[in-house]
Structure formats: C-alpha cells, structure tokens
Design brief:
- There is one protein chain.
- The chain has helices spanning 40-47, 74-80, 102-113, 118-131, 137-141, 150-162, 180-197, 208-214, 232-238, 242-249, 276-282; strands at residues 2-11, 14-24, 29-34, 55-64, 67-68, 85-88, 168-172, 200-205, 217-222, 225-231, 264-267, 272-275.
- It has 287 residues and is an alpha/beta fold.
- The protein has a single domain (2-282), classed as Rossmann fold (3-Layer(aba) Sandwich), CATH 3.40.50.300.
- Strands 6-7-8-3-9-10 form a 6-stranded mixed β-sheet, sandwiched between helices. Strands 2-1-4-5 form a 4-stranded antiparallel β-sheet, covered by helices on one side.
- A hairpin with a 2-residue loop joins strand 1 and strand 2 (14-24).
- Bound molecules: adenosine-5'-triphosphate.
- Adenosine-5'-triphosphate is lined by residues 11, 16, 34, 36-42, 52, 54-55, 206.
- Keywords: ATP-binding, Cell membrane, Membrane, Nucleotide-binding, Transport.
- InterPro entries: AAA+_ATPase (IPR003593), ABC_Ni/Peptide_Import (IPR050388), ABC_transporter-like_ATP-bd (IPR003439), ABC_transporter-like_CS (IPR017871), Oligopep_ABC_C (IPR013563), P-loop_NTPase (IPR027417).
- Residues 2-248 form the ABC transporter domain.
- Belongs to the ABC transporter superfamily.
Length: 287
Amino acid sequence: MLNIDHLNISYNHTPAVQDLSLAVGAGQIVGIAGESGSGKSTMLRSITGLLGKEGKITSGDIWFENRQLQLLGEKEMEKIRGKDISMIFQQPESSFDPVTTIGKQFCEALGVHEKISKKEALGRGMELLKKLHFPDPERIMDSYAFELSGGMCQRAAIALGMVCNPKLLLADEPTSALDVTVQSQTADALMELRENFGTAILMVTHNIGVIAYMADYVGIMYNGKLVEWGKKEEILLEAEHPYTKALIRAVPRFGMSYEKQPPYIADTENEKRISVSETHWILGGGK
Ligand SMILES: Nc1ncnc2c1ncn2[C@@H]1O[C@H](COP(=O)(O)OP(=O)(O)OP(=O)(O)O)[C@@H](O)[C@H]1O
C-alpha cells in the first residue's frame, strides 16, 4: 500500500532522512522508533506533503497504491489528506480547532471529501466515538476540545482522523503525551480500528514498549537512517544495531519476573525472552 523507496530529505540542504526504504501493507501496523532528531516526524510529514518551506525531498519515491506522492501537487494532496491518508499527533488538542465544537469539526472533515448532510455527518462521527468506547457521544459532539481530558481528546482525535475511513493512518507519538493508563487505552483503540476497518497504521514513537505491544513490523531510525527493519519478533529478539539493543535494555522491568507475565515472545534456543504482557503492563494495561 505504502512503499517508501530510497528516500532522502533535507532541511536547507542539511540531510534529515537518508536513503530510507520501508513498506506498509494493507491492514499492517508498522512502528518506527528512534531517538529525538532521528528523522521520524520528517519521514511521516513527507508522506502527507507537509515538510514546510525548508524541507525538501531531494531523491527517492513515496508510492501510495499506484501514485507517487512526491510528484503530486498541493490540490491532489489535499484530496488524499484526511480521505485516504490521515494523521494524528502527539498533542491531541492540535487535531482540533479550540473554538469550534467537536461535532462541527466532524461535519467539516467529512464535508471536504463528501456531499453529506450535517445529520449524517454527526451520525457517522457518533458511531465512531461509540466504537472508541465513548458512552455519551452526543455530549462529546457538543464539547470543545479543551473540555475533554487528554485521553478522551486523543480518542476523539483518532475518531476524527478515521471519519473518512482512510486506508492509512499516520500517528506521530500518539501515546506520548498521555499518562500510562490512557496510553494503554489509546493503543487498544488504534488496534481495534485495524480490527474493525482494516486500517493500516504507520506510527512513530520513542517508546519501544508501545511498538512491542502494537506493531507487526518495526523500524529503528538513528541519525536519519533506518538502521533496523523487520518483523517485530525478529527485531526485538535479534536486534543488531547497538542503538536498538540500548532501546530494548531501557524498557523498565518494574522488578517483575518474566515467568509471571506470559505470553512471551520467546526464542527458546537462545533463551532470550521479551514479554509482550510486560510491555502491556508498562502501558498500564494490567498486571
Ligand atoms: N522545520 C525544520 N527546519 C529545519 N530543520 C528541521 C525542521 N524540522 C526538523 N528539522 C531537523 O531535522 C532532523 C530530524 O527532525 P525530526 O523532527 O524529524 O526528528 P524526530 O525523530 O521526529 O524527533 P522527535 O522525536 O524529537 O520529534 C533534526 O535534526 C531536526 O532538527
């Protein structure tokens, strides 16, 4: 569905992303981890054509289905943004206009891409809010973003991002600004979207625990380059790059033995183990 091929991006001639290739298949969750400044957000923004004035794709291709996104003009990108590809951000409030009700923003988001009545648009939004476990979607529709808690706001932002039923959701640190319990709810909400709608998700984060919990494929960025790429189990168990090893070592253990936390991603031959439920616990999802 999405194929990034030997992508190079610079800001004012300084390279930020170098020779990056990766792929996201339909319905897959791909997690990209990496330290601050390694180029994760730049890579995501390049997909939606939002690199700003300084940012430039200097070579390489971004294929989405049969289109080369980096060759499309702003008008064509506008049609794709929000409809086929949508994006959610670390600060959920930044997905919303603070002086417009959430309901009105659902109507506006749908109105850009479809001829749809206000009633129908609100209905579609409320259905999504229900799927994301809001017991009172009508109240949410009448609220402003600042009236919601951080976790509610992020789930509402996910619903807004999903309202046009995009094939690909880009998520920039979707759980980082949230406390651990809400991180877990948000991670579960994203995984449910994949289950319910087959949405592919490309997510960048500092948090290898979130990736261990959610992703099918993992990439590790370091200094603008993708230094590791593969299936989650392969990367978490067979990390080769020193930065990946350090990231995995840095996952807190909370003094719990692995044996108490099945199921494992286990490589019995080498007796190396990473507990998926441990990362779930780190995310606040249970003990
Ligand atoms: N608008 C910009 N103008 C100039 N340089 C930029 C701009 N945005 C990002 N950069 C630079 O590009 C490099 C990659 O930044 P980017 O934000 O993509 O990293 P990141 O991995 O997403 O970091 P973080 O995890 O802190 O968000 C950094 O060196 C950063 O300073």
